[in-house]
Structure formats: structure tokens, C-alpha cells
Amino acid sequence: MKQITKITAQRRSGRFNVFVDDEYAFAVSTNVLGEFMLAKGKELTEAQIMVIKQAEQNAKAQEQALSYLSYQPRSIKEIRQYMAKQEVDAETTEVVVKRLIELGYLDDDNFAKLFINNALTVGTDGPRQIMNKLRQKGLTGDQIALHLDEVDPADFIATGLKIVQPMTRQFGRLSQRELLQKMRQKLMQHGFTSELIQPILDAIDLGDDEELQNDALLTQGIKAYKKFKKYSGYEYTRRMKQYLFQHGFSSGEIDRFLNGEIISLEELEEY
């Protein structure tokens, strides 16, 4: 049997050095000191000392995890990854994870709810993007779907509108059709489903502004002319029509441009 011969406080608050048989043996926190009722004169076996050291290791790792959690909510996977970076062994990590779950500090279901609510507040992600991010944080598809299903579609529509509303300023440079297509692509990139995209686009009020549509036709028509004026006859007409059609203009609008109704052919030649 070994005997504790001295316990001294470290400069760091709540930490103590334990001496066994007049030699430094290990350091412990206040909690571990109290848990094992360590005091001068207490006798310990080698096995007991190992248990105390492991308890201290667990306590230290738990403090690290709690500090990491203090900044923002984390998933179980994020805690495991953090502990690995701190070079905490897997066995200790699992003890800490289990304890934090018991204490309510780790709860992936609650984490998913908070993550989704925050995503809706920030307003940059659709449901697919949110699902991908939560998968990366270790949640299962079923867990994520359960909480996404609880979101009112109107909340995602509001988020989508926030994303594409600034793009309405491009009407007049782009045709209405091309602008809506770019909005659709933008929403897809942000993880919105087709079931949500259409209501979002329906809620966008571009109006039926003929003047802005004509401005877009003028802008794109001049671009096309500069690009294809080296051609003549059928080839010029074919390329102009193809370009303008790809940019969302109807055949009637294209004919109006080619006939000089948007800009006179004489003025166009100045470009």
C-alpha cells in the first residue's frame, strides 16, 4: 500500500498536486479530490491510483468538451472530432460523450432543431443544403428529415425570397425569362427543392413591365450584334435569333429587334 504524504494547491485555481510516499504522484481537480476523498494519510493501492488518474483524465477531457460547447451547440460527431484533435484517447472520449449526453449537454435532436432555426434566421440555405450540412455533422437522414418536416414551408419560401429578391434589379438587363431561370438556378444551388422553387418564383413580382423587357432586349440585342455583325444574310439572322432566344426572348420580340423596332438599323450599325 502507498500513502498520501502531502497535497498542495497549484497556482491554477481548483488544481492540486498529490504526493505519495513523499514523491509527486499526480495532479487532480477539486471534483476528483472530493470524489475519492483524497487527504494526507490516506492509503492507496496501485489499482486505486490508476482509477484516480483515469478519473482525472476523464474530468479534464470533460472540461475541454464543455469549453468547446460553451461557444455554440455541437453535435456528438463534432465533439468526437474535437477530442481527437486534442489527442484525447477514444476510450476517454466515449466516457465523456456518454456523460455529456446524460447531463443534457449533447443532444443531436435538439442540435438539429437549433441548427435549422438558425439557418432560417440567417436565410441562406434551403432544405437540401441544411440536410447536407447536418449529415456532415453526423446526423442521420431520418433524424434530419424528421425536423425538416416540422418546418412551415412558408418559412423556406421567405428564405428563398430573401436570396433572389436582390436579383430583380437585373430586370432590364436580362429578359424576364432569363432572369427567372437564373433565380431558379440560384435557389437550386442553395438547396431548395422544385416544390419550393416554384412558389418562390410565383411570389416574385417582376410585373409585366414592357419597358424593362424592351431595355433587356436592347441590351442583349446590341451584344449579339457586336458579336455577329461580321456575318450577313441568313447566317447573321440565324445567329442573332439563336442568341436572343437563348437569352429568353420570344420569336416575336426577336423579330421586332431585327426589324429595327427596338433600335433603328442605322443606329445599330454605329455599334
From TrEMBL:
Pfam families per record: RecX_HTH1, RecX_HTH3
Subcellular location: Cytoplasm
Name assigned to this protein: Regulatory protein RecX
GO annotation terms (biological process): regulation of DNA repair
Start and end residues of each RecX third three-helical domain: 214-258
One cellular-component annotation, GO: cytoplasm
Recorded family membership: Belongs to the RecX family.
Keyword Cytoplasm: yes
Keywords: Cytoplasm
InterPro entries membership: RecX_HTH_1st (IPR053926), RecX_HTH_3rd (IPR053925), Regulatory_RecX (IPR003783), WH-like_DNA-bd_sf (IPR036388)
Domain RecX first three-helical: 62-100
Function in brief: Modulates RecA activity.
Originating species: Amylolactobacillus amylotrophicus DSM 20534
